[in-house]
Design a protein that fits this description.
The complex is a heterodimer. By secondary structure, chain A is mostly helical. Chain A has a two-stranded antiparallel sheet with strand order 1-4. In chain A, a hairpin with a 2-residue loop joins strand 2 and strand 3. Chain B is globular and about 60 Å long. The chains are: A mainly alpha, B mainly alpha. The interface between A and B is large, with 40 and 40 residues.
Chain lengths: 311, 313
């Protein structure tokens, strides 16, 4: 992205169009962070733990896309959509399997143990990826047709547009699932109070499994969209975007779905602007600086509700 | 002489004794032993924060980086001026090394204070994240300081780390943490861990305890970093990423939080495991992470925690 945005910047002249260009780059990066952040925030909502393995599900999503991309004709919209669907399906299964095998036996255990298990799953996926996919970076195929066009001095690539469009559609779909369907209502109930949810007859295992599937599918979509914009993929590609997406989830208010989307967009935009400035070498630190500031002054996040601890 | 002090003295004398025979030890084994020692210092010091005081820090590698860089800077930049071109006698070198470690440890402790004061108001996952964030920020700062080598890191650090220094600091770290926790004052750490609200209600300043635990933990992480730098002879910012912090946390949790002996055993085991699994090469890390998941499911109280009945994490 660095090289891409730099070459784009050189074609620009006015400060305003440069600002808008960076804003566009930032929003498309932010949309990807938002997709990953949604998975973190949903899992945190129902289980109250940080699913460290989420960032590696994102990586697996990109790799499924890499292999599936060879099976369909390149540069077609339907081909791209098939790849996207396959990868989302594959990762949903992966996420549900992880939950079933690694997290369910620890239901009700101390948070720290679950956290370490999540770290273990994350390392397992990374190292397995290095053995089975190879540690060397690979070039992600152009599964969607790519075209650059300029509007009033702005250079817009179709990749950026598809990132924003796909992310927006998925978020609307998620909002629909969570607020308008039976399973979504059950998810919200479990998030509010797991015990009470069980008492009114909600099968908590099914809900948690569904949450993992849904979150992992969104991570897979994020992985494909990320790989479209930064076409070099490797087994460790998930680590940094994963951490930043988590920061985005905390920034918006952990457990809060619109918050995760907002946090992702803010973080992506800020990071892109920092990257375009003279402090670009600090771009990886800026996410954490934001995290620390938000934790100190508004620990519940931008859209979260602050709860007082009761004895 | 009180018993713990006697043990410390005995451990130091043993370290001195072993260092006399270090020529006869196979260099590979010596390397592994030094690696184990450094990990024990890291795990035992993190145990004071995560285990005894119950605060979840994920930024230990950041403090290790501060110690490693500052100690290396002292022996690289000040060393030649103080010792002259000849390099000085062995005694002078060891004195310089001790000073370098002191600088490394103290600056890490200061960094711990800077990080701890604002972030220890937070709890649980949030504290974990903020410490992780600080650890990463420290790493990015070192990556951008040109004097300290930037992204390439520091090279050609003199090889001052010997088996004696490692064993001596292992003994010191274990001594300090054990004595502190078992002292009248140190009961406050356990009280903070057990029930923060109740501790505050009986008049303990829990924030103060947390910060003290954090600063002492950071100090020893800095020492371990200094030893590591003068052992590997080259340090890069990427060597202190958050993976390293996780490695230390895993040792503490597997050892059984708040159980110094268990944590030492876990540090030994987890340093040896990758070495022992070397024959299966690329599959060893898969096995390592798989074992981690299985252990968490089968023995959530930690591998070496045999305290029945009062397991509380």
């Amino acid at each position: 992205m660095t090289t891409q945005s730099e070459s784009l910047n050189s074609q620009l002249s006015t400060p305003l169009s440069e600002f808008l260009q960076q804003l566009l780059n930032g929003l498309s990066l932010g949309a990807i962070y938002a997709l990953i952040a949604l998975g973190y925030t949903m899992v945190y909502g129902v289980l109250r733990f940080i699913n460290f393995a989420h960032s590696d599900v994102f990586m697996v999503g990109a790799f499924i896309g890499y292999y599936a991309g060879k099976l369909v004709p390149e540069n077609t919209i339907w081909g791209g959509l098939v790849v996207l669907a396959l990868s989302m399906l594959g990762c949903a299964v992966l996420g549900m399997t992880i939950e079933r095998l690694a997290y369910r036996p620890l239901r009700g255990a101390a948070t720290l143990n679950v956290l370490i298990t999540a770290i273990g799953v994350s390392l397992l996926l990374e190292y397995s990826g290095q053995v089975f996919f190879g540690a060397a970076p690979r070039t992600f195929p152009a599964i969607f047709p790519v075209k650059n066009f300029s509007v009033g001095g702005l250079v817009i690539s179709t990749n950026q547009l598809s990132v924003i469009v796909v992310a927006a559609l998925l978020m609307v779909a998620l909002q629909f699932i969570v607020h308008r369907t039976k399973i979504g209502t059950a998810m919200r109930a479990v998030s509010l109070n797991p015990k009470a949810a069980q008492l009114v007859g909600i099968n908590i295992d099914v809900v948690i499994s569904f949450t993992f599937g849904l979150g992992s599918a969104l991570a897979a979509a994020g992985g494909i969209l990320y790989a479209l914009n930064y076409p070099s993929i490797d087994p460790l590609m998930g680590v940094m975007p994963g951490l930043k997406a988590f920061v985005a989830a905390v920034l918006g208010g952990i457990g809060n779905i619109p918050g995760a989307a907002l946090g992702g967009l803010i973080l992506g935009t800020v990071e892109t602007f920092v990257n375009g400035s003279q402090w670009s070498t600090y771009k990886d630190a800026i996410a954490f600086a934001i995290l620390i500031i938000i934790m100190l002054f508004r620990p519940a996040g931008l859209l979260g509700k602050f709860t007082v601890e009761k004895v | 002489m009180p018993r713990p002090h006697f043990y410390l003295l005995a451990a130091l004398l043993t370290a001195l004794g072993i260092s006399h025979f270090s020529d006869r030890i196979d260099p590979y084994h010596l390397d592994v032993i030094i690696g184990i020692g450094i990990n024990i210092i890291l795990a035992v010091s993190l145990n004071l924060v995560n285990g005894y005081t119950g605060q979840f820090s994920l930024g230990h590698a950041g403090f290790m980086a501060v110690g490693a860089y500052l100690a290396a800077a002292v022996s690289l930049f000040l060393g030649p001026k103080l010792l002259g071109a000849s390099g000085g006698t062995a005694l002078q070198q060891n004195a310089l090394f001790l000073a370098a470690l002191g600088v490394g440890g103290l600056s890490a402790a200061f960094a711990g204070l800077l990080v701890g004061v604002p972030s220890l108001r937070l709890k649980g996952d949030y504290l974990a994240l903020v410490t992780l964030g600080f650890g990463e920020i420290i790493r990015v700062i070192f990556q951008n300081v040109e004097v300290l080598g930037g992204a390439l890191g520091l090279n050609g650090i003199p090889a001052y780390t010997s088996i004696f220094w490692v064993l001596a600091f292992v003994a010191l770290a274990v001594f300090v943490v054990t004595c502190l926790v078992h002292s009248t004052y140190g009961r406050g750490f356990l009280a903070t861990h057990d029930d923060e609200i109740a501790s505050e209600a009986v008049g303990l300043d829990t924030t103060r305890y947390k910060i003290i635990a954090f600063v002492i933990g950071a100090f020893f992480a800095g020492i371990a970093g200094g030893l590591y730098g003068h052992f590997k002879l080259t340090i890069t910012p990427t060597g202190f990423s958050f993976d390293r912090s996780i490695e230390i946390v895993v040792m503490v949790i597997l050892g059984g939080m708040g159980n110094t002996i268990g944590v030492i055993l876990a540090a030994v085991l987890l340093t040896l495991l990758p070495e022992l699994l070397r024959p299966i090469a690329e599959y060893r890390m898969i096995l390592y992470s798989f074992l981690l998941i299985v252990l968490m499911i089968v023995r959530p109280q930690g591998l070496f925690n045999f305290k029945f009945g009062k397991v509380k994490l």
